[in-house]
Amino acid sequence: MASKERLYEVWMLYCTKRDPDYLKIWLEIFISSYERCLDVDFEKPPSRPDELPPVLTLLPDNILQVLRHQLLQCVQKASDGLEAEQQHLALLLLKFLIVICRYVFT
To answer: I want to staple 22 with a disulfide (CB 3.0 to 4.6 A). Which of 13, 16, 58, 98 is the partner?
Structure first.
């Protein structure tokens, strides 16, 4: 499971450098810590998890602004056809939102 410190460290790198690769790494770490407990691919019907997911700690203050910006970029590029890297980012953003929405303990 990802440590809170690693999530914070990668988020700070993203905020400092504004490099989308750091956002992807942050999203991958965040999602992987929940994938064992929450079905982010909707392969099973919704149910209470067998094991407790990690506690959903406070998200970064500007996460919604970052998500909005990244999703808008994906939408704008979608008409031209997304590159594989942009498709991967769009999928990570979607899975992140699924984790937040399906987290049954909020």
So the answer is: 13
Q: Return the residue matching tokens 């942050």.
A: 26
Work out the end-to-end distance of the chain between its first and last CA atoms, rounded to an integer number of angstroms. 20
- Which tens digits make up the pLDDT trace of 29-56? 888 887 777 666 666 666 665 655 566 6
Q: Among residues 73, 74, 64, 61, which one has the least CA distance to residue 96?
A: 64
Helix/strand/coil percent split, the chain, to 5: 60, 0, 40
Look-up: residue for tokens 């953003």?
A: 93
Q: What is the pTM of this model?
A: 0.70
Q: pLDDT for 70-80, tens place per residue?
A: 888 877 777 77
pLDDT in tens, 62-102: 888 888 888 888 777 777 777 888 888 888 888 888 777 76
The SS3 call for residue 30 is helix
Q: Is 68 helix (H, G, I), strand (E, B) or coil?
A: helix
